[in-house]
Amino acid sequence: MSPRRAAKLLLFALLAHPGNVPAADGKIIINAHPQPEYGLPIPFRKIPGTAGTLALEIVGGRLYTLEDNGLSIYNIDNAKHPKKLGHIGGMGNVRQLRVRGKTAFLTSRQCGLWAVDVSDESHPRILSNFDAAEMSTGLDVAGNVAFIGNRVYGIQCVDVSDPARMKNLSTLPTDESQSVCYANGWLLSGDWAGGEVTVIDVADPSAPMARARIHLDGYGDGLAVRGNTLFASTGQHKKSGPEEDRHGAGHGLDIFDISDPLKPVKLSRVSFPRYYFGPCDYWTPRLSANYCFASDTINGLFLLDIADLKNPRILGNLVLPKADPENPKIGVPYAQIMDPAIAQGDPVSSIAVGDGVLYISGNYTGIYLAEFPGKAKLDPIDKGPPPQLPAKPYLGQEEGFISSGPAASNPVRAVAVHGDIAYTANVWDGVKIHRLSDDGITEVGQIDIDYAADVKRSGNRLYVAEGQNGIGVYQIKSPTEVVEIGRLNVLEKGLNFAQFLWAFDSTEIVAATCAGSRINFVDFSNPKEPKIILSEAGSQLLYGSYGGQALVKQRYFALTRHVGGLMLFDLADNSAKKVWHDGFPLCSQTGSIAAMGDVFLTMRGGGYAFFDPEKPVATTKLERLKFPGQDTLPQDAPDDSPISKAMFPKTDWDGLPNYDPGTGKLAVLNRTHKNIRIYDFSDKSHPKLLKHHRLHSNPYAPAFWKGRVLLPGGYSGLLLEK
């Protein structure tokens, strides 16, 4: 009997099992890619009452899910009919999930890492939130250490021995970590645009070391390890072959022998349908005996026979519906996917192997179930011995700077200066007040604010980005007496988590974002009745503090979008007007822009350029200049295609710049590569490099005090240049 014939008979046996008779509470759905190379259609059904879901995990006979901005727990004693036990929400843009003992850990993109007590299944309870280095996406937990995949900021090791107060241990940049997997002292990072798996030694989680890179044939994401075998899901664009054949052809599964993780051997690859869809990236393998269930976002799910690792075979597939079977009004909010002419459907965001069943989560439409009696079994995972916590705590000492002290649980994200007083945004420690002197930093007070992600000063006002509490406005009556005088409760409906803002002395217009796609301009002329007067979306997300820290000519505000170009606004006459937008890739996700006299200095393709807001020119026309000490400029993006944007040059010369007009100093802080360079730009035609420091933390946009750099040092506290 041929292998193809045997595979068909096996799948027919699975589909013909009596358990696949349509259940009373859900109709069987048959929807699949028809091409024979993707196997036979796998029937499935919707679990009634479920809605858009982002992650699934089975632990201790319970199904844990991320839905409705939070965590739900289902009883699956009857595996075919899950029953919801409890839910806790309010955790934002949830993404991945791990449950260890009685604690659930979950990443939430802009909203960091959450720890939830699940000992009472009917009433799960939030224990704490940890502000990660950037967009918390990937997650694994081993022993007392959580590993976060922070996209372009790489991986982060977090001490979770006390889930109520998690602490930073270290960060290590990789080429866009999307998912992570721990095994036997190694952390494997599925790196997205880089199309790699970075092999990281985390025996000492305070000092992780990248030891090898495994090249994939598509963009990287989900991983599974069994013994000495690595299964790596890939998507988006192919990484090999003629360029004209790569677009959308990266979907599939790569299998490697990692007996020696530093010398991996590729065993095989299976490819899935070619298709490009930008908004959702979830590619995940899950193992069950001799089978691998591989989800591929809009392409659905594929069942593979992996008994022969060198010759895996696709046995069957399914594609989720484009709209919710229970409520057709709920569907994928993209015309590209809703087009009836294409096979693709609701993105599969996660899968979990249960007892005879597979649970499948749809990003927009809920949870589905496919039955595989006798075949689907929860695969026992042996991750090996967990890493040991370091003997010494995170010290937060940075060369060349005086520190206010380490802030391992609540990093310093921003600083606003008023005379000799510095106000810092310290996440769940609110806003702290410091007095600056030539000798150092002294904490002299604290403002009673639940959560502070950013703080800016305008005149005698402080504006604070307070996450789910919107933007607070405070009057400075004295250095340590600050009172609330107004509030914008909702910055963005549906994503109300205020993260970054910009305020200036010459206007009462404040720019702010939720680290989403929109930049919002709020008129605070009457702080008790603030009004959003302009809201502009763009093609790329505003993940970081990408706006200028000062205005040009007291009116022009500019911001960069990560590999998404430059936007320019005129804030004259207490209004807000967009006057320029060029979407061509300008700088990497680490780069931004600074006001410098009558022009802006912007990061530009690995170097810098000057941009005149009154004579704007296209990004491709801007002259790229090298910083002092920079030998060469990397190759610029050839075009603004998705492939070019993903491969945009990422160098440690990029950064968040700020200029001090009093001294002519320019500070450029690179959050990803953890370094700061300080230049003398008093003569813009002949700048000089003054200082270059490597850092342990991932600081935020620099400020100045009396000509000295004042740095919101993240986990290293507030830093003052020596």
Descriptive overview:
This protein is mainly beta and 722 residues long. Helices cover 3% and strands 43% of the residues. The chain has three helices and 55 strands. The chain has a five-stranded mixed beta sheet with strand order 1-26-25-24-23, covered by helices on one side. A four-stranded antiparallel beta sheet has the order 2-29-28-27, with no helix packed on it. Strand 15 (177-183) and strand 16 form a beta hairpin. It is globular and about 75 Å long. The chain starts with a helix and ends with a strand. Mean pLDDT is 93; it is low at 1-24.
Strands ordered across the widest β-sheet: 1-26-25-24-23
Number of helices: 3
Structural class, judged by helices and strands? mainly beta
Write down how many β-strands occur, each being a DSSP E stretch of 2 or more residues.
55
Average pLDDT number: 93
Largest sheet: 5 strands, mixed
Helix content: under 10%
Q: What would the principal axes of the Cα set say about the shape?
A: globular
Proportion of residues in extended strands: 35-45%
C-alpha-based Rg, rounded: 26 Å
- Report the span from N to C terminus: 77 Å
Low-confidence sequence ranges: 1-24
